[in-house]
């Protein structure tokens, strides 16, 4: 799932006429970097949630993203990779974004149409407004997640200047993500907004929103993650590749220098 429903208030006036995930970064739409990485990784379907100016995203990408990848430049060999795109139009259906957990619950029937099948209850989540040009949706991480019992596996990054306190801790010995109290001296890292999830995290006892979120309930993701961390059900790892939360016009300009 690619999260793309936010208003992008801090990016105004740029986002007054363009949704943040469509802002250009190094020659292409910010969200297109994720779509290309998903296609290269062999993923075949993505659900994009929309709200503010969401019609622009569905008009831009429609229902299929096609990536042509050169395999051998000397012999001009290439491979075409296709990514099916489905949309969860929160703005159209409810008049605005449902926040992260609310949006995921809304999209669950699309994300997990065969949830009873092996692996059918697992999915990636990535925010459409972060720039991570080298993140490749690693298959090895997915295999480890499938074999384990964690409800979520998160990628954490070094704290940027706008989030120096960080979000979650990491126990390097066990790989568990930690919900650290404010006065806990252990280091925190920032959640990259990239993670693997099980549908069970969005069901009782963790979440009371019905699958499909028919009432359009708004709900944040962090409380669900923190509750699951307290029960040892969330794992994490550090990501040291380039990562930027494109949250202000200045950060966007710096990427495009």
Task: Furnish the topology, listing elements before pairings.
Elements (H helix, E strand, L loop, with lengths): L1 E3 L19 E2 L2 E2 H11 L4 E6 L3 H8 L2 E9 L4 E13 H5 L4 H13 L10 E6 L2 E2 L7 H9 L4 E6 L11 E3 L4 E3 L11 E9 L23 H9 L3 E5 L5 E2 L3 H7 L2
Parallel strand pairs: 1-4, 1-7, 4-6, 9-13
Antiparallel strand pairs: 2-3, 5-6, 7-12, 8-14, 9-12, 10-11
Question: What are the main properties of this structure?
Answer:
28% strand; 24% helix; single chain; 257 residues; alpha/beta; Spore Coat Polysaccharide Biosynthesis Protein SpsA, Chain A; 14 strands; two-stranded antiparallel ribbon; 8-stranded mixed β-sheet
Walk me through what this model shows.
- It contains seven helices and 14 strands.
- With 257 residues, it is of the alpha/beta class.
- It has an eight-stranded mixed β-sheet. Strands 2-3 form a two-stranded antiparallel ribbon. A two-stranded antiparallel sheet has the order 8-14.
Short synopsis of the structure:
The protein has 257 residues and is α/β, with parallel strands linked by helices.
Instruction: Please tell me the CATH architecture by its name.
Output: Alpha-Beta Complex
Named CATH topology: Spore Coat Polysaccharide Biosynthesis Protein SpsA, Chain A
Spell the H/E element sequence. Answer: EEEHEHEEHHEEHEEEEHEEH
Quick one: CATH class?
Alpha Beta
Share of residues in helices: 10-25%
Number of strands: 14
Strand count, sense and barrel status of the largest sheet are:
8 strands, mixed
Tally the structural domains. 1
Corresponding CATH superfamily: Spore Coat Polysaccharide Biosynthesis Protein SpsA, Chain A
Cα shape: globular
Strand content: 25-35%
How many angstroms does the end-to-end distance come to? 29 Å
User: Which spans of ≥5 residues are poorly predicted at pLDDT below 50?
Assistant: none
């Amino acid at each position: 799932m690619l999260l793309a429903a936010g208003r992008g208030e801090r990016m105004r006036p740029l986002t007054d006429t363009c949704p943040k995930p469509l802002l250009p970064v190094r020659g292409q739409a910010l969200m297109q970097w994720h779509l290309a990485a998903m296609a290269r990784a062999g993923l075949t379907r993505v659900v994009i949630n929309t709200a503010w100016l969401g019609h622009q995203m569905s008009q831009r990408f429609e229902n299929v993203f096609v990536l042509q990848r050169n395999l051998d430049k000397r012999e001009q060999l290439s491979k075409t990779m296709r990514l099916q795109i489905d949309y969860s139009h929160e703005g159209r259906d409810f008049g605005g974004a449902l926040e992260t957990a609310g949006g995921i619950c809304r999209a669950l029937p699309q994300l997990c149409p065969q949830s009873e099948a092996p692996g059918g209850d697992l999915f990636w989540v990535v925010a459409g407004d972060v720039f991570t040009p080298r993140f490749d949706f690693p298959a090895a991480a997915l295999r480890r997640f499938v074999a384990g019992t964690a409800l979520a596996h998160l990628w954490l990054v070094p704290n940027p200047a706008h989030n120096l306190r960080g979000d979650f801790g990491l126990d390097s010995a066990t790989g568990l993500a930690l919900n650290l109290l404010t006065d806990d001296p252990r280091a925190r890292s920032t959640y990259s907004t990239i993670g693997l999830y099980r549908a069970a995290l969005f069901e009782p006892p963790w979440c009371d929103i019905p699958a499909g979120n028919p009432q359009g309930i708004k709900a944040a993701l962090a409380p669900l993650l923190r509750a699951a961390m307290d029960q040892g059900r969330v794992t994490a790892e550090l990501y040291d590749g380039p990562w930027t939360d494109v949250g202000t016009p200045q950060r966007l300009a710096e990427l495009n220098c």
